[in-house]
Amino acid sequence: MQTVHIHSVAHQHQLLHMAKPRHPLFSLLRFDDFPVIELEQRVKLLSDLYQITLKKDCPCKLQYGQTTYDFDEGVMSFFSPRQVNIAGPGSLTPASGWLLLVHPDFLRGHALDQKIKTYGFFDYAVTEALILSEEEQQSIDAIIHQIEREAALPIDTYSQDVLLANIDLLLTYSNRYYNRQFITRKPSGSLLLSKVDNLLQHYFDHESPEKGLPTASYIAGQMNLSVKYLSDCLKQLTGQTTQQLIHEKLIEKAKEKLTVTRLSVSEIAYALGFERPQSFSKLFKEKTRQTPLAFREQFN
Description:
Elements: E1 2-6, H1 9-15, E2 26-30, E3 38-39, E4 43-47, E5 50-56, E6 61-64, E7 67-70, E8 75-79, E9 84-87, E10 90-91, E11 96-102, H2 112-115, E12 130-131, H3 134-152, H4 159-184, H5 186-206, H6 216-222, H7 227-238, H8 242-260, H9 265-272, H10 277-288, H11 292-297
Parallel strand pairs: 1-4
Antiparallel strand pairs: 2-11, 3-10, 4-9, 5-8, 5-11, 6-7, 6-9, 8-12
């Protein structure tokens, strides 16, 4: 598989056979202006840039992990530097939308340099893109138009600050709409919660202790979701992260073994996947305010 590594904004323009960018660290491109790009084989894409896109009627399919996503609707996607994606054969150009490119150096020394790292959606998979309502898309478009107007002006001492302020606003609205998306998808979220519970139940019932404790990465991988997206979705549904739900299930299974078996605390710890009984006892006491033995004594 061919790998394309994009090192800079200028390199991205060069690959697209487009004119040099007005600014070396920032660019906003319209897909309407893109040349037709046809891929004959799958290509691994690796970029050193932050990329934010709005794609509509995209004929291509992108793969993240084991999942393929088809951009049939207008959706926003967010890519952090060094994130790998795979483009399948066929046309790579959406019918409309835009691509915002920001080099990390453009953010140096500004508050957004740290703030952008707190937005979990830059770690989401392509399948977890932000689907905008018509009203939301209008709000996003208004910000993009402002960025576009500013980018067309001659560069002066205020250019970077104004552009960063608008990018900051764009990300704030995106974060707001992502949280709305979690809320409006609660029915499917409930199904997701049920799947997590079933995966954990199966893990404790069928996996050998040598495999260790279940992790958030394991659960997310089984569901073809990014770790961050799954945790954010569960947090919205239950108030708990994936790791907290794993701990909750661990304590539930521990209580079951403490009350219905004669296994020692050490044997229970190893059966659940703990490497050391002390770690199990510490977690149990943190969650129940009792030691495992004190809990067991209540039922004797």
